[in-house]
Amino acid sequence: MKKFASMALSATLATSLVFPAVAGAESSYKDIKDDFWAKDAIDYLTEEGIVSGYDNNTFRPNAPVKRSQAATMLTEALDLDTSDRPDPGFSDVDKNDHVYEAAAVIADEGIIEGKDGKFMPNKPLTRAQMAKILTVAFELDGEENGEDFADIPDDYWAHDFIQAISANDIASGYEEDGTFRPNKPTTRAQFATFLSNAINDEGDSVQEDNEVAQLLKDTMDAQLNLDSYTFEGDMDMTMGMDLPDELTEEEKAAMEEAMTMQMNMRGAFQMDPLVTETVIDQTIPGFDETITSAAVMADGKSYEYVSDAAFLGYPAEWDGKYIEMDYEELLGEEFSQFMFNIDKQYEMTQEIYELFIDTFGTDAFTLLDEHNAIPEGTEYEQIVKFELTEEALVDFADSFEEDVWPELESILENPQLFSQFGISAEQAETLNEAADADFDEFLSNLSLDDFEIYQAINSDNLIVFDTGNIAISYADETGSFSFGIEYDMELGNFNEDIQLEYGVPENEEDIIPFEEVLEWQEQQLENLEDFEEVEVDEDDVA
């Protein structure tokens, strides 16, 4: 429903910005005086074509609004498509009646359901019924923050609806006695006011959604078009799992310590020529030692700098050298061209981004002026907060499966893509079917304990600081597993000349081809197998 409302209200907002209503202008209805309390709301809805008066140019503001009139107004306000709607089966609304289309669409949307097979088009809409249909139509929440009315007990059928419109400042009660008077008919003036309030409340939300979506798009475009930048920060990762009972307490403690990693990360990106460098200083639990690793990607190849061959188990002579992976040689020319073609990567990134925003909207994003997650001294214009709750994850997964995956398949359906990973079309289809079958079960066993990300964005729409906290856990009949990550990352030196800490090796003697690494690993496995095959003669055992 909100999707329909957002589209209609976006158009309404655009229209109102171009042709703003003039407060205090003379009303088009002869029974609406300039100082009438609901004049602005009535004029606004009239200008938008949502309400109309009677043939004698009256509005009859104090007359009860009929259920048929409310249905017609909501159909117009939400810009609902009345075509191809199922017959609601109301015994008191004929297909030739002028209200039939509105009754059918409103019933199909679940806004007004009728009673005992009747729509009761000419009956007045009570204030309680008004609260329900506006809450449903505009998907209002926040009922826990609504006003407590003297005549609305907690178990009253419309209690939550009344609380919701109160919490969202759509409608209020009677100040003199603190009542809501739920069974009292809603007047046409009141309904015009309440509907106008709901539209403006939704309009504020739509405007904020559009602002968030635009900022995200601008930020993505700015990041993708950078010539260069540097980054530096810290990352802590923790893992947990069921440990075998056979282990001693000391062994369990050692394993748990080993599943905690602390890292400092720094690096740089350069567009032309394309070079990325990432340097990680990792604290090794239980060894009181920090190991530095560096990875560089350039010209279709990646290089891993060997900083401590002995600790990594490599031959001592590899110290200070680079392990080279030539992706064209290892995985083929197509994969290499795809992986290192920035234009193709950016195009795909933009398509996926637009697909996700169009489908999921911006509900998980919030714009903030400041937050203590961003360190003092950081120069920024706005902060974008992304928070994913477990409930939202379920909705996300449902929408992903129904709406996104079919579209995503078409984006990723390039037959070259699977082949570049060594996967045939038949294998890819099998993988997709298996994923579909297991996804629901996987999701039911997954717990999202924490998922918050804050990004500080400067006036050029560039992310200058990125921080997050993510914690998930998974449990099924085989055991449990948990994973957590906390990180802080500062980005800067945008479009400036960068200095690589390690860079690309210049001398051939400093390069260890990956084939040599594979040969060395195979030799280690053969040595291990030979060692295991040695049999001890029992007669030689003392």
UniProtKB/TrEMBL annotation:
Pfam families: SLH (PF00395). InterPro entries: Cell_Envelope_Struct_Comp (IPR051465), SLH_dom (IPR001119). PANTHER family: OUTER MEMBRANE PROTEIN ALPHA-RELATED, S-LAYER PROTEIN _ PEPTIDOGLYCAN ENDO-BETA-N-ACETYLGLUCOSAMINIDASE. Keywords: Signal. Residues 25-88, 90-144, 145-209 form the SLH domain. Residues 1-23 form the signal peptide. The keyword Signal applies. The lineage of its organism: Bacteria, Bacillati, Bacillota, Bacilli, Bacillales. This is S-layer homology domain-containing protein.
